[in-house]
């Protein structure tokens, strides 16, 4: 005999022993209270026989017992006894599991105990801060644990408990990290957004929109958009659907589409042009077109056939940017040297191409050229070129504002009437010089294309918001039509609650969430706007460019009203305290009725203005990337204070989850925490860098998004720890998270909104 083991239950003990079997033995096992010297004849007889195990039943719970086993030696005596002491107890809870039920809840299950001594099972949750809490006591086999913090790790254990409240042995543990589950939907696709314009006559124009549709103006009205091409995505950063659009006659156009030449004649189709990579095309007539590539190849369409591609002379190391024709086989191209940024020209006549050097970089850089029937004008940065017949001349063109003097588009209808697009303005030229410079869509949209038909006396301009402007010598510039209602893109979201949110798209349309879907409503603004909500009864939408705002109350948006600055950041603690800051570091307060006169608050000229965050009920915190901060307490600003020397000066993002708790994060990930009196520095870790936005819901929980369109990961901050917060799929740089509840968060990006649950 070598061993004796005991497995206690609540009212029984299972005993087993081993293994004196040769010769065959009989065994005697007795139980006593553990006092005195045991003998084969003292104590309670539990078993006598030749088996190797027995269950001793009818015992008392929580009582200690001693068992002694004797094996007969075959000669009337016993071998040396084996002894074990054990206590009855409740059985361990088995089958414990935990799985996420939502961002803030978990489903915990276990095997229901069958032992009648178990009066209840107690489930205990311990968080990452080692704070334990009993979440369930009862006889069921599952529970849903609520009130979790997304991104925090939790440990669950189970205890059995008897009717008197005494606990049994703890089970094994299971771990779970609560996570938001993100669902991304396209809610605000881009529609319209003109990208190219060409007019054949004063009453016929072609417009191609960046959503892949085209429209035709016949007379004074525009056709409905017709789908023809794939869209290009974000109109602000994507290439146009077609480039170098030209229309020699009403109903006839050619353009470059993804490096190939397409034509319009009762619909768009391929022309079967040779090769690919074409970048500029001009068609002075319906039977002649010339296209060039940046690397100096050209091809002409004569009638219905394309010529074999030929070199534009023998120049090497130059980049050809544009081509224009006065007539068939009389065309002109401009190029820049890739090393010297010098200006070069190419002239095509019946005898072929000839090239020549025009001038060095001290005279600026040519970019575009356009021709009427007899003359051409070339423009770029501080440069003007004229062509009379086939004779070129170049001159420097000084500008009062060089940053805006770079021609992006150019069209000449006559020697005395050319229109150029220069960043945000439209300039009108003759062959002798600049006649006027005008801002048409300033602050409202970007000019998408200019066109002056050769019929003379009129020019057209289209902006990317779908507005058409016309110039004549009598009316000058006048907006004459809306070609298409451009919509799309997402702005900063504000939520009253999980079932009521708003954002303004890139063209000023309000888009609302009703708990199940996003719906575009009215065009409340002419520009993008940011929405901020505070509580269930108040939201404010601010258009920085237009310096106007609207307030949501009583179920609708109020009238547009002016505001005294153009905010770069905005935060509200309630309906009577919203603080806006502008690029000059000025601050203005909205008190429920209007905005206060701006006052100097916190300078941050190198970072585009300071950042501001108001805790619920106030106060507000302003920080700059120059290492300074101020607070707005009550109705006034405190003094400007520098961050402690150990806090990185580049603190730019800031969010306050409570009146005495703010987090500020630098680009490299170092961060600091405000406790109501001072900032405490913390070093960067693997999860706290490269943020584009920060939103703190409480004093212990924040959500951060990154500033890259290809980074689909949310980061969370929980009581000093940065961690993974789930994945989403914005199609552009994600905005700041808006979380009306701990579970429901919204993040906009491009044309999508990601919603967590």
TrEMBL record:
Keywords of the record, alphabetical order, are: Carbohydrate metabolism, Glycosidase, Hydrolase, Polysaccharide degradation
Under the heading InterPro entries, the entry gives: FN3_dom, FN3_sf, Ig-like_fold
Q: List the PROSITE patterns hit by this protein, alphabetically.
A: FN3
Superkingdom, taxonomy of origin: Bacteria
Q: This chain belongs to which protein, by name?
A: Fibronectin type-III domain-containing protein
Q: The Fibronectin type-III domain covers which part of the protein?
A: 92-181
């Amino acid at each position: 005999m070598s061993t004796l083991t005991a497995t206690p239950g609540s009212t029984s003990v299972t005993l087993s022993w081993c293994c004196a079997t040769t010769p065959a033995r009989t065994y005697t096992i007795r139980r006593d209270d553990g006092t005195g010297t045991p003998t084969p004849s003292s104590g309670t007889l539990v078993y006598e026989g030749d088996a190797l195990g027995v269950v001793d039943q009818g015992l008392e719970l929580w009582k200690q017992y001693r068992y002694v086993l004797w094996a007969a030696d075959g000669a009337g005596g016993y071998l040396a006894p084996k002894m074990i002491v054990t206590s009855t107890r409740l059985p361990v809870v088995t089958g414990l599991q935990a799985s996420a039920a939502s961002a803030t809840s978990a489903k915990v299950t276990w095997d229901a105990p069958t032992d009648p001594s178990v009066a209840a099972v107690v489930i205990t949750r311990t968080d990452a801060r080692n704070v334990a809490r009993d979440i369930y006591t009862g006889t069921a086999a599952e529970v849903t644990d609520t009130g979790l913090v997304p991104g925090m790790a939790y440990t669950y254990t189970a205890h059995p408990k008897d009717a008197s409240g005494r606990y049994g042995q703890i089970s094994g543990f299971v771990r779970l990290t609560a996570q938001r589950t993100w669902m991304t939907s396209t809610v605000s696709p881009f529609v319209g957004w003109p990208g190219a314009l060409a007019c054949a006559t004063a009453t016929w124009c072609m417009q191609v929109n960046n959503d892949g549709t085209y429209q035709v103006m016949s007379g004074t009205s525009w056709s409905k958009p017709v789908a023809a091409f794939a869209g290009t995505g974000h109109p602000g950063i994507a290439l146009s659907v077609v480039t170098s659009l030209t229309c020699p006659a009403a109903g006839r156009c050619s353009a470059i589409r993804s490096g190939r030449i397409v034509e319009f004649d009762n619909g768009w189709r391929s022309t079967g042009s040779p090769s690919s990579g074409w970048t500029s095309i001009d068609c002075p007539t319906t039977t002649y077109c010339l296209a060039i590539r940046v690397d100096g190849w050209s091809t002409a369409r004569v009638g219905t056939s394309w010529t074999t591609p030929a070199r534009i002379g023998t120049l090497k190391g130059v980049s050809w940017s544009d081509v224009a024709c006065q007539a068939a086989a009389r065309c002109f191209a401009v190029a820049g040297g890739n090393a010297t940024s010098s200006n070069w020209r190419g002239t095509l006549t019946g005898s072929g191409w000839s090239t020549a050097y025009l001038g060095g970089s001290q005279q600026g850089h040519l970019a575009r050229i356009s021709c009427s029937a007899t003359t051409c004008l070339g423009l770029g940065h501080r440069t003007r070129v004229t062509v009379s017949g086939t004779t070129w001349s170049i001159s420097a063109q000084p500008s009062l504002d060089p940053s805006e003097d770079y021609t992006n588009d150019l069209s000449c209808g006559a020697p005395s009437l050319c229109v150029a697009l220069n960043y945000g303005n439209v300039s009108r030229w003759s062959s002798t010089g600049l006649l006027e410079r005008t801002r048409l869509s300033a602050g409202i949209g970007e000019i998408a294309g200019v066109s002056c038909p050769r019929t003379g006396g009129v020019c057209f301009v289209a902006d990317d918001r779908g507005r058409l402007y016309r110039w004549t010598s009598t009316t000058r510039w006048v907006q004459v039509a809306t070609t298409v209602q451009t919509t799309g893109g997402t702005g900063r979201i504000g939520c009253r609650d999980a079932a009521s949110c708003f954002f303004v798209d890139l063209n000023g349309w309000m888009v609302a969430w009703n708990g199940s879907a996003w719906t575009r409503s009215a065009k409340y603004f002419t520009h993008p706007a940011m929405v901020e909500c505070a509580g269930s009864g108040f939201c404010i939408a601010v258009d920085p460019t237009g310096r106007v705002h609207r307030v949501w109350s009583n179920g609708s948006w109020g009238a547009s009203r002016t505001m005294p600055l153009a905010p770069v950041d905005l935060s509200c603690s309630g309906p009577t305290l919203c603080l806006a800051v502008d690029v000059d570091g000025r601050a203005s307060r909205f008190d429920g009725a209007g905005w206060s006169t701006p006052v100097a608050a916190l300078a941050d000229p190198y970072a585009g203005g300071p950042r501001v965050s108001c805790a619920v009920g106030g106060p507000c915190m302003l920080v700059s990337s120059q290492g300074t901060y101020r607070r707005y307490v009550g109705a006034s600003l405190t003094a400007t204070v520098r961050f402690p020397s150990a806090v990185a000066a580049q603190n730019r993002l800031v969010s306050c989850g409570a009146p005495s708790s703010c987090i500020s994060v630098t680009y490299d990930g170092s961060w600091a925490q405000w406790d109501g009196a001072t900032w405490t520095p913390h070093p960067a870790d693997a999860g706290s860098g490269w943020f584009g936005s920060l939103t703190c819901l409480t004093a212990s929980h924040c959500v951060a998004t990154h500033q890259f369109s290809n980074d689909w990961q949310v980061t969370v901050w929980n009581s000093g720890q940065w961690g993974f917060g789930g994945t989403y799929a914005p199609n552009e740089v994600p905005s700041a998270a808006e979380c009306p509840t701990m579970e429901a968060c919204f993040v906009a990006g491009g044309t999508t909104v990601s919603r967590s649950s």
